[in-house]
Every structure is written in structure tokens, then in C-alpha cells.
Amino acid sequence: MVREFAPPPRADEFSELIKKKVREVRDAGGTRETVTVDWNEQQAHVEVVDLPLSSLYLNPGTHRIRAQRSHNPVRDEGLDKDPWSAESQDYLGFLLQASPADPNLRDPEFDALKDSLKQFGQNDPGLVTHHGIVVNGNTRACALRELSVQSMRVGVLPESFTWADINAVELSLQLRKDHRRDYTFLNHLLAMEEQAALGRTPEQIAKAFRIQVKTYHRDRWILTTIRELIDRSASGGGSKLRLVDWERAQERLKELHRLYMKLESVDRDQAEVLKEWRLAAILLDFSKTDVRHIDEDFLKEGLGSMLPVPEASGSLASEAAGVVIPGLGLTVPAASSAVSEARALNDRLLRAKAVVSTGDPGLADTEKAANQEVIDEAEEAFDKALDVAGRNARLRKRKQLAPARLAEACASIDQCVADLVQARSSRSLDEEAFDDAVLKLRTSLRKLAQQAGRGLPDPGDGVAWLLEAATVEPTA
To answer: What's the CA gap between 358 and 311, in Å, rounded?
Structure first.
């Protein structure tokens, strides 16, 4: 559900200042600047005024950095407790300037925005609530502050607007086709999740986000999978992965969903095994082309045996035997051993990655080194397995290339038959050119027969026919 934030400090005082500014604009006469706001299929035309930047608050509920807030769990918790404190506002400002995929780095797009504002000034007004909370233009507000600009042009939303209305306004602005900067991958997923929590149907959400309903279900599956992985990564020391850790995995997760849906209806265990292995490869940051090698052929060729399967534990053995339903005394079949092993491997990697990536200063160096060793061992094993898979894939491609070329040639000949009939019926056939083309075909078939007959003591029917046809000489 949409979170309701308490008004910021001196909210009533700032609200009176805004009302005074709006009255001054209206009383001045002449052409007034307004901005049109769309929300929940409604429109409002609001006045634009100049407000002091020092008095404006960055929006703690903005979707633009929702996933990035997990970068620092301690500061994120402080932001939840008091979003208007100087520390919380500083954290929001830091995230708005940071790279979405790695908040430790500054975002080049932010610097480009800052340069544009310095050169051309503020072209479009932002939007604020009647308490001075920035709804649209948070990043611009940060850039203007760095440029030591004193005020910002903003449209003022009606006093009656609730936080649900505010979120709807931000979403409608974001989904405009001319919006300059899209939500990041994960923030897009979180925005859809929030809309679902408000009771909107998949069809309504898909329409609002301008996507197909099947795309909506795919994105919800991806977010559910990420949340499950974060829960599984939690270790006894409190370390766990963050939403922002999956920001770069967009395309690889989409391809995983396609493969999983394709296999699940045929063999659920196979789908689960490949899902776990692909997720592990994504976690280890292998490229999209490398991850693609983890497919049905990866299983058939037994390359999973090259991966570092953890030693079987008592819990793993009991899980393989079956799952007891509490209160009923019934035992149902558990996941296959292959699924359990793949899941155990991924759990081990998730916990190790959580410890290493979060960089908890309270952890001993020996523990960090041990977890890094787990990651290094897995990277080496996956690298070898994927290298073999890549070579096998290239070999399969070479094996299939000649038959595929011949199939294309057959299709061309079939089309030639239709063209020949049409040309004869219209008496437009160039017989000499056609005869020359047939002679070239005979030469090509003889070359093909020469290569196809090599090293085949017992050729099949097709090759036998080709060898016989290629040796036939024309009658006098």
C-alpha cells in the first residue's frame, strides 16, 4: 500500500508562504504560467511560482530511487524513521546523484543535467505539494543546489492531494513518452508492485505502463524471484543482498523467465535446475551470451557435474526423502536431488555474495576471505563449464550448418519450380539463361557429391542418390 508520510517540520508555515506566492501571481494579472497535471485519468491546471530551494524537501516516496535505498540499510532505516531529518535528506540527495546500478559511483547523467541547467537554466517547472515536498524534479533540485541557485520554479499541487494522488502524479509523469529519464529496471518493477497493492488489475496496470499483460506477469515473476533470492541470501551475521544488486541483470533475468516458462510445462525439475544455475551465473556476473549456454543441452551434456555441489547434509537428505505436512502426518515427494543440489549451490553463493558485497565492517577478515574463496571457486567452475558449453554449441552449429544450407537450397529450388511454371505459361522464360543456371547446379551437385561421399563406407539413401545422380552423364 501507499505509505502516508507525516508533514515535514514547519509545514503549516511553508504552506502559508506558498498560498501567498500563488495569490501574488494571480493578482499580478497578465499571462500566468501553469502546468497540467494528470493523475487517475483526471487533469488539474496548477499555478507555477518561484520557491526557495533551501525550504523544499526531497520526496522520500519517490519511485526514482526506491530500489537504490537498499544500498545502505542503516541509512535506509533512518530514512524510514524520520524522512525529513538532515541525514535522511542528505541520503536522498546522495542517491539521486549516484549511478542507479552502483550507488558508489556518481551518475554521468546527473552531471549532464547539471551542465544543462548551468548553461540554459530551468526549462520546465517541477511540482511540489502545498507543504513543499518535491513530487517532480527531485534530481533537478539537487543539481540546482549544487549550482548554488537560490530558487526553483514549481507547480503547486492542490492542498487536497493525498499521498496516493501524489504517487499517481509521479507515475503519470514518468510514463509520458517524452519523459527524459526512465525509471531504472527495478524501480519500474516496484512501481508496478505498488499499483497491484492498490487493488488494480493486471490489465489496468499494463495499460497504464503501456505494456502487454504478459509482460506485466513476467516482470512480477522477476521481482518475486529477486525478493526470494534476497531472503535466501540472509546469513546468521545479518548480511543479505540488496535490491540494487540486481539492477544490471535486466536482460539476463528476462531471458531466464522465457526459458523457465518454456521448460516448466514439460519438466518442472529440469526448469528448476536450470533456473538455479542461471541465477548463480547471473549472480557471478557472467555475460548474457555466457548465461545462454545454460540450457537443455547443458543438462544433456552433463556439464552440471563440473559445478561445485555442496556436501550433502542431513537436512538435504531428509528433504530428498520427502516433506511431511504438519498436522496431517502425510509425506509428499520433495524436489529431486538435482534440484536440491542446485538450490544448495545457489544458497551457498547467495550467502557468500551477501557477506562480500555488503562489506560489513564488523566481520572478521578471515570470514570475508572464506566467503570470497567460495565465490572464486564457483566462478572458476562456472567458467570452465560455460567454456565447454560454448565449444559444444559452436560444434553443434557447425554440424547443423551444412543441412541447414541444403534446406535453404531446397526451398529456393521449390520456388524455382513455381517461377518456371509461371514463366512458361506467360511465354517469358529465358531458356538460355535457364539452361546455364542448370549447368551451374550440376557442377555444384557434383562438388557436393564429391565431399559427401568421402569417408562413408555405407552412405544413407540421400547421399547414395546424390552420388548416383552426380555421375550420370547426359545422353547424346
So the answer is: 26
pTM of the model as a whole: 0.71
Burial level of 142, CB count in 10 A (0-12/13-18/19+)? buried
* Cα atoms found within 13 Å of the Cα of residue 219, Cβ hemisphere only: 21
Find all residues with CB under 8 Å of 113, minimum gap 6, and list them: 139, 140, 143
Distances in Å between the alpha carbon of 355 and those of 30, 149, 239, 390, 436?
A: 62, 42, 6, 31, 72
> What digits encode the pLDDT tens for the residues 277-318?
999 999 999 999 999 999 999 988 888 888 887 665 444 444
| Rounded (10°) CA dihedral 312, 315, 320, 325 | 180
- Cβ–Cβ < 8 Å for 126, 143: no
Q: Please check whether residue 189 is in contact with residue 224, taking contact to mean a CB–CB distance below 8 angstroms.
A: no
Q: Cell 519517490 maps to which residue?
A: 62
Residue 195: count other Cβ atoms within 10 Å of its Cβ: 21
| Per-residue exposure over 221-230, b if at least 16 CB sit within 10 Å of its own CB, e if not | ebbebbeebb
Rounded Cα–Cα distance for residues 351 and 277 (Å): 15
Contact between residue 301 and residue 292 where contact means Cβ atoms under 8 Å apart: no
Please name which of 111, 124, 101 lies closest in space to residue 178, comparing C-alpha atoms: 124
Q: What are phi and psi for residue 161, nearest 5 degrees? A: -65, 130
The answer to whether the beta carbons of residues 50 and 152 sit under 8 Å apart is: yes
pLDDT tens, residue by residue, 20-34: 998 888 888 777 888
* 73 closest CA partner among 320, 240, 315: 240
Q: Can you tell me the distance from the alpha carbon of 47 to that of 166, in angstroms, rounded to the nearest whole number?
A: 16
Q: How far, in Å, are 104, 130, 198, 300, 428 from residue 165 at the CA level?
A: 33, 13, 12, 53, 71
